[in-house]
Design goal:
heterodimer, A: alpha/beta, Rossmann fold, 2 domains, 6-stranded parallel sheet, 6 strands, elongated, B: mainly alpha, flat
C-alpha cells in the first residue's frame, strides 16, 4: 500500500508542476489553478488513510478543516477586487504559521534530545514560518490601511534588526546543540515573530506586493523544511517548488518596478528624508484646473486619447464609467487606448483584471513598451487615479526613491488631464512634477464622479 | 547521511530547478495570480498538519494540532478560491473578445 501512496504523491507533484506552467500563460491560467487544486486533493486523499487517529485527533481534524474551509471560502469570496493583495497576504501568513506549528509539534514529540537531522529542519521551519506569519500580518495591516503605509524607520533600526537576527541564530544553536533549555523553541518562535514585524515595518505600502511574494517563497521553504522533519515527499517537493518559483517571481516583480530586491527591502533607510527635502522646495507652484465642459470639448475633438488607469480607478470602482467615456469618444471617431503600467494599481495585473471586468476590449489594453512611443502623438492623456507610474522624477531625479523605474511617457502628450482626489502624492509618497506642468489640467474629485460628469458633458459637446 | 535523507535532498535540489524553470516566462499581468496560485500550493502543509493533529493526545499537542489544521486549511481553500476569482476576470475578457470581435471605430 505504501507504494500506492508514494505514487499518489508523485502524481500530485506532477500536477503541481503542470499547474504552475499553465498558470504562467494567460490562455491556460485558470485551468492551471484547477490542475494544482487536483494535485492538492490527491495528496490529501493519499494522506488520510495513512493517519493513525487518536480520539482527540479525529475531532480536532474535523473541527479544524470545517473552520479553516469556512474562513478560506468566505474570505476569498467576500473580498473586493481592490483588496485581493492583502487577502493573499493573510492566506500566506496562515500557511507560514501552520508550517511553524507542525515543526513545533514534531520537536515536542522528540523531547529534549532530537537528532540533528530532525532538529535542524524543524528550527528552520519554525523561524522562517514565523517570520512569514508575522510579516504577512503587517503587510495585510499596511494594505488594509489599519496602519500607515509609509515606511516606519527609526535611528539604529538596522542594528536592532541585526541583533534580533543574531539572537535567533544563538537560539538555533542552543536548540540544535544543547536542546535541554525548556521552551527554547518557544522563545525562538517569539523572536522570529518579532523579526517578521521588524522586517516589514520599514517597507512602504507600494512595495507590499513584492514583500508578499517574498514571504510566499519563505512559506514554501518552511513547508519544505517541515517535509524534511516529517520525511514527507509531498511537502518537500511542493514546498520547494513554491520556494524556488516564488523567489524568481519576487525578482521578476522588482525588475518590473525597475528596482533591485535589495532596494525594495532596505531602500527606505536614509532615503525618506532626502525625498522630503526635495519636495519641500517645490511649495508655491501653481496647478491649472479645468472645468468639466472644457475637458469634454478637448476630449471630443481629439484624434488619439490614451487613458492611464491607476489605483484611484480601482478604489472608485470607476472601470465601467471609464469604458462608457471611451465608447462615447470612439463613436465620435476618437481613437482610445489604455496604457497599462506593469505595476499600476497595487498588484501587477490589477488594471487588466478591473478593465476586463468592465468588458474593455483586449486590443485596447496596451503594455508599456507597446505604447510608450505613441504618447507623443496623443492629443490627450487621461490619467485616472494614477500618479507614480507617470512621474518624470523616475527619469530625471537621481535621488528619488522611484528613480530608474520605467514610466509611461505621459509627459510627451500634447495635453495631460489628471483625475485625482487631491494634490496628495501617490503611494510611493513623492511629489509629481507633472502635476505642475503647463500642459497639465487637473480635475479634482472621486474618479467615478468625475468620469460620469465627463460622460454627460461629452454627450452634450 | 542515511539514504532516505539523501533521497529527500535529491528531490529538494531537483525541485529548485524545476520551480525556477517552470515559471520563467510568465508575463507581468499574471504575476499576482501566479503568486496567489503558488500560495495555495504551499497549503500542502495541511498534509503535515493532519499528520501531527491525528496523533494529538496531550492538551498542548491538541491545541497546536487544531491551530495548524485551521491555518493550513484556510491557506489551501482560500488560496485556490481567491486565485480562481482573479483568473475568472481574465476568462471573462476572452469570451468578450469572441462575442464582439470588432468594435466600430
Amino acid at each position: 500500500m505504501t507504494l500506492v501512496y508514494a505514487l499518489a504523491y508523485l502524481l500530485a507533484a506532477v500536477l503541481f508542476i503542470l499547474g504552475l506552467r499553465q498558470l504562467s500563460s494567460p490562455k491556460t491560467a485558470r485551468n492551471g489553478n484547477f490542475t494544482a487544486a487536483a494535485g492538492m486533493v490527491i495528496a490529501l486523499g493519499a494522506t488520510v488513510p495513512q493517519l493513525h487517529f487518536t480520539g482527540a485527533g479525529a475531532v480536532i481534524i474535523l473541527l479544524g478543516v470545517v473552520i479553516g474551509a469556512a474562513i478560506g471560502t468566505i474570505g476569498a469570496r467576500q473580498v473586493k477586487m481592490t483588496q485581493i493583495p492583502q487577502m493573499v497576504a493573510l492566506f500566506n501568513g496562515a500557511g507560514g504559521g501552520a508550517a511553524a506549528l507542525v515543526a513545533v509539534a514534531e520537536l515536542v514529540k522528540f523531547g529534549s534530545h532530537p537528532p540533528l537531522t530532525e532538529a535542524l529542519p524543524s528550527v528552520f521551519s519554525i523561524v522562517i514560518g514565523s517570520v512569514s506569519f508575522a510579516g504577512s500580518l503587517i503587510a495585510f495591516a499596511k494594505l488594509q490601511e489599519l496602519m500607515t503605509g509609509t515606511p516606519i524607520t527609526y535611528p539604529g533600526q538596522q542594528l536592532v534588526n541585526g541583533l534580533i537576527a543574531a539572537a535567533i541564530i544563538g537560539f538555533v544553536i542552543a536548540v540544535v546543540a544543547i536542546a535541554s533549555i525548556p521552551f527554547s523553541f518557544l522563545s525562538l518562535m517569539v523572536l522570529a515573530l518579532i523579526l517578521g514585524v521588524a522586517f516589514v515595518l520599514p517597507i512602504g505600502g507600494a512595495d507590499m506586493p513584492v514583500v508578499i511574494s517574498l514571504l510566499n517563497a519563505f512559506t514554501g521553504l518552511a513547508v519544505a523544511a517541515s517535509g524534511f522533519t516529517l520525511n514527507n515527499f509531498a511537502l518537500i517537493v511542493a514546498g520547494t517548488l513554491v520556494g524556488a518559483s516564488g523567489s524568481l517571481l519576487t525578482k521578476l516583480m522588482s525588475d518590473a518596478m525597475g528596482r533591485s530586491l535589495g532596494n525594495v527591502l532596505f531602500g527606505a533607510f536614509g532615503k525618506v528624508q532626502a525625498a522630503a527635502g526635495a519636495a519641500a522646495g517645490k511649495e508655491g507652484r501653481t496647478v491649472r484646473t479645468g472645468s468639466v465642459e472644457d475637458l469634454a470639448t478637448l476630449l471630443a475633438y481629439s484624434r488619439l486619447v490614451i487613458i492611464v488607469p491607476g489605483y484611484g480607478l480601482a478604489v472608485a470602482q470607476a472601470q465601467h464609467a471609464v469604458r462608457e467615456l471611451a465608447d462615447l469618444l470612439e463613436k465620435r471617431g476618437v481613437e482610445v487606448n489604455y496604457a497599462i503600467h506593469p505595476v499600476a494599481g497595487r498588484m501587477p495585473g490589477h488594471m487588466n483584471v478591473l478593465l476586463a471586468e468592465a468588458n474593455v476590449p483586449y486590443e485596447q489594453l496596451k503594455e508599456m513598451d507597446e505604447i510608450n512611443d505613441e504618447f507623443k502623438n496623443a492629443d490627450v492623456v487621461l490619467v485616472v487615479g494614477a500618479n507614480d507610474v507617470v512621474n518624470p522624477a523616475a527619469r530625471n531625479t537621481p535621488g528619488s526613491p522611484i528613480y530608474g523605474m520605467p514610466i509611461l511617457n505621459a509627459d510627451q502628450a500634447k495635453n495631460i488631464v489628471f483625475m485625482k482626489r487631491s494634490m496628495r502624492p501617490g503611494f510611493a509618497g513623492i511629489d509629481n512634477d507633472l502635476l505642475y506642468d503647463p500642459k497639465t489640467i487637473m480635475l479634482f474629485g472621486d474618479a467615478k464622479d468625475s468620469l460620469t460628469k465627463l460622460v454627460n458633458a461629452v454627450k452634450a459637446a | 547521511m542515511n539514504s532516505e535523507l539523501l533521497n529527500e535532498f535529491t528531490f529538494f535540489v531537483l525541485a529548485v530547478f524545476v520551480g525556477i524553470e517552470v515559471i520563467s516566462k510568465v508575463p507581468t499581468m499574471l504575476h499576482t495570480p501566479l503568486m496567489s496560485g503558488t500560495n495555495a500550493i504551499h497549503g500542502i502543509i495541511l498534509v503535515g498538519a493532519l499528520v501531527i493533529a491525528a496523533g494529538a493526545s496531550s492538551p498542548v499537542t491538541i491545541i497546536i494540532g487544531l491551530l495548524a489544521v485551521v491555518l493550513a486549511t484556510t491557506n489551501v481553500v482560500g488560496g485556490f478560491v481567491v486565485t480562481d476569482r482573479m483568473l475568472e476576470m481574465f476568462k471573462g475578457r476572452q469570451t468578450t473578445r469572441t462575442q464582439e470581435p470588432v468594435k466600430p471605430k
